[in-house]
Amino acid sequence: MAKGKNPTNNEQLSLRGEEELILRSPSHHQIRKRFSDLETCLASPALLSNEKPEDFEALFNQLLLSVIPSDAIEYIYIRDAAILTFDINRLQRSKIALVKTAYPQAVSNLVAPALDRIRADQLSGAWTRGAPEATSQVNEILKKRGLKQEAIQLKAIELRLDQIQKIESMISVLESRRFAFFREIDRHRDGFKRRLQEAVKNADGSYSVVEAENNMNSQARSSSRPSTVAKSDQGLGNGPATSSTEQS
Question: Of the residues 38, 89, 160, 223, which has the fewest C-beta atoms closer than 10 A?
Answer without folding.
Answer: 89
